[in-house]
Amino acid sequence: MNNALLPALAPGFAAPARAGGVVIVGAGQAGFQVSASLRDGGYAGPITLLGDESELPYQRPPLSKGYLTDSDESAVVLRGQEFYDKRSICVRPGTRVRALCLDKQQVELADGTRLGYGHLVLATGARPRQIAIPGVDQEGVVMLRTRSDADNLRAHLDQSRRLVIVGAGFIGMEAASWAALHGHHVTVIETADRPLANSVSAETSGYLTDLHRDNGVRILLGAAVSRFCGSDGQLTAVELDNGDMIAADLVLVGVGAVPNVELAASAGLTICDRTGGVLVNQNLRTQDDRVSAIGDCATYPSVHGAGLVRLESVQNAVDHARHVAALLVDGGGEGYRSVPWFWSNQYDAKLQIAGIGDPDNQCVVVGDPENGTFSVLRFGDVGLVAVESVNRPTDHMAARKILAGTQRPTVVQAHADGFQLKSYLRDVQESR
Question: Which of 15, 219, 346, 348 has the CA that lies 20 to 30 A from 267?
Fold first, then answer.
C-alpha cells in the first residue's frame, strides 16, 4: 500500500462549526448511524441527514431475505420520525444533492438551494452494476438494491415461477435460497467458475453450491447471457452465449455494485482507481479536512493486511459511522481498526465471515463439512487473515477477537488434530 496516496493524517478532527453543523449526504445505514452516534456522543450542534429516496432510512440486508415474504415496514425501517424529532436531527427524505461546493463549505440541492456545513459526511452508498445486454430494459428483468426494487421483485414473484438469477454473489445466492424454498424453479447463471468467487474460499463456495443444488437450484458456471428474450412485452427466456435458451418469466440481475462517487469526483476529491471508492485516510477523512467518506462509497487503508479496501456490509457502514462520529465529538483517538465481518443466511446455513481473504490464501478446514458445521481458516503472508464459519458461531466470535489482536495461530497449529479457535483464544488470553 502506497501511503503517499492517502490524505494526510492530522491529530484529530476540528469540531464542526455550530453555524453549519454536520451535513450527511446519504440516508442509508451509514448516514443514519452517524446522526444517531453524534447525538449519543453528546454532539449538540445541527445535524442534517439528506437522502434521495422518498423514505426514512432503512436496512438493506432484509430486502433479499425476509422482506420478500413480509413487506411490513417496521421490519426494515431503522427508526420512525419520532426518533429524529426527539434528537433534533433534521432528516430530509427525497432530497437530492447535485453538487458539493467545498471551497464554500456548502452542498447544493437539486432545487438550487445551498446548505452550509461545519463538517460534511459522504455516505452515498452504491448502486447495482448495470449490464448492456439486449432486452435488459423489458418488463420482468429486475435488480435489487432499494426497498422499491424489493417491492417490485416481490410483485413479480407473486406472478412468476421460473426465476433466472444473473450473478452468483451474495444477493443472487440469498435470493435463490428464498425463491427455492418458496416453490420457484430457479436457475443461477455465473460467468466465474464458482459462486461467490470474489468473496469466499473454494471450500465454502463448494459447500454452498452443493446446498443449492440439493434444494433444486440449477447453477450454470462459466456461462454468460447474450440476450433476454420476450414476446408482446413479456419476458419468455434467457439466451446464453452458447445459444442455449432458458425459459424464464422473471430475471433478477445481481452482478455487483458501483460506488456512488460522482459528487465527490466532481468536487475534486480523490477516487481510488482500483476500487472506485472515495479515498480516505485512517480516520476516514478525504484530502479536505472538513469532509469524511464512509460505508460502501469509501476506500480506506485496512490495518489487517488487506491494503486499500472498499467494503459493502452493514458492519463496515456502522463502524465507519461510529468512528467518524466519535472523532467529531472528541477530536482525537487512533485510526480506524475494526475487524471486518459479514454474514449470509442460505437455507439452514448461516455463513459468518471475519476478516478479508484473498484468492491466494492457504486454507485449513476445521469441523465437519459433511454435517454443515465447519470453519475455513484462511492464511496469507501475515498469518491468519480471515475465517469463514458455517453454523459455527463460536468460531466466528473467537475469530473476530483473534484477528483484532496481535497473536494469531499458524498453519501448522491449525492442522493439529482437535484444533479449536475458542481454545486457542483462551490460551492466548491466559498467557498475558
Answer: 15
Side-chain half-sphere CA neighbours of 98 within 13 A: 7
The enclosing H or E element of 35 equals: helix 29-40
Question: To the nearest whole number, what is the mean pLDDT of the chain?
Answer: 93
User: Is the per-residue pLDDT at 1 higher than 70?
Assistant: no
Mutual orientation of helices 314-330 and 29-40 as an angle, nearest 10°? 30
Q: Which of 64-78, 227-241, 297-311 has the lowest mean pLDDT?
A: 64-78
What is each CA distance from 207 to 140, 246, 346, 387, in whole angstroms?
31, 25, 11, 15
* Helix residue ranges, H only, 105-250: 147-159, 170-181, 202-214
Domains and CATH numbers, the chain: 22-127+258-330 (3.50.50.60), 134-255 (3.50.50.60), 348-431 (3.30.390.30)
C-alpha to C-alpha distances, 43 to 48, 89, 151, 372, nearest whole angstrom: 13, 11, 37, 47
Structure-block grid coordinates of residue 201: 474460499
Return the exposure string of 192-225: e unless at least 16 CB atoms fall within 10 Å of the residue's CB, then b: eebbbbebbbebbbebbbebbeeeebebbeebeb
- Per-residue pLDDT of 360-412, as tens digits, reads 999 999 999 999 999 999 999 888 999 999 999 999 999 999 999 989 999 99
Give the three cell numbers for residue 58. 432503512
Bridge pairing between strands 22-25 and 119-122 = parallel
CB 379 within 8 A of CB 366: no
- Residues 192-208, mean pLDDT to the nearest whole number: 97
390-400 as b/e, with b when 16 or more CB fall inside 10 Å? Answer: bbbeebbbbbb
Rounded-to-5 percentages of helix, strand, coil across the chain? 30, 30, 40
Q: What is the pTM of this model?
A: 0.93
DSSP annotation string for 277-304: SEE--TTSB-SSTTEEE-GGGEEEE-SS
